[in-house]
Design brief:
Number of helices: 4
Largest sheet: 8 strands, mixed
Number of domains: 1
Low-confidence stretches: none
Strand order of the largest sheet: 1-3-2-4-5-6-8-7
Shape: globular
Radius of gyration: 15 Å
Oligomer: single chain
Structural class: alpha+beta
CATH topology: Aminopeptidase
Number of strands: 8
Strand content: 25-35%
CATH superfamily: Gcn5-related N-acetyltransferase (GNAT)
Length: 160
């Protein structure tokens, strides 16, 4: 296992990506920057522990997005999108690049689906549907979504 390894080219390091269960995808200025594989999952975030303003942004350089994902033990065919945090001034293209990189990780791992709990009210059901996510396991206080692949990944995720 590669503890805390930082990968800048997903396809060149497919074996490491396929083995890593927990990771952080970082995008900057609308492009993939790195994938940091971690030994432990992302369990909790600062806004969940401490009341912060509604427009919370992480510190750091402008136009940066970090996406945390887990591959739960016992569910090797699924990825869980745990948390996304952006710095001030992050553009839409940078956010979308993080999601595209997650799709590429899912394709490399040959996962069947990605699941998430959309806590941010600005992520509407209509927007999630436009991005390929569908409602999954409705609960009273959670909006769960799933993005299914089952062997059919978006164009450009894997080389021909």
């Amino acid at each position: 296992m590669f503890w805390f390894s930082k990968i800048h080219d997903l396809l060149a390091h497919r074996d490491q990506v396929a083995q890593g269960r927990y990771g952080v995808i970082e995008t900057r200025h609308g492009e993939f920057h790195s994938l940091e594989l971690r030994p432990l999952p992302k369990l909790i975030s600062w806004p969940e522990v401490w009341p912060v303003r509604l427009k919370f942004h992480a510190r750091g350089p402008q136009d940066r997005c970090r996406l945390y994902f887990n591959q739960p033990r016992g569910m090797a065919n699924f990825l869980a999108l745990k948390y996304i945090v952006s710095t001030d001034g992050t553009r839409y293209a940078t956010f979308r690049a993080a999601l595209a990189a997650l799709d590429q990780v899912a394709a490399i791992k040959r996962t069947d689906a990605i699941v998430c709990d959309a806590a941010n009210v600005r992520l509407s059901d209509r927007l999630m549907q436009r991005w390929g996510w569908e409602p999954h396991k409705p609960q009273r206080w959670h909006r769960n979504f799933i993005r299914r692949f089952y062997g059919e990944y978006p164009a450009g995720c894997l080389p021909a």
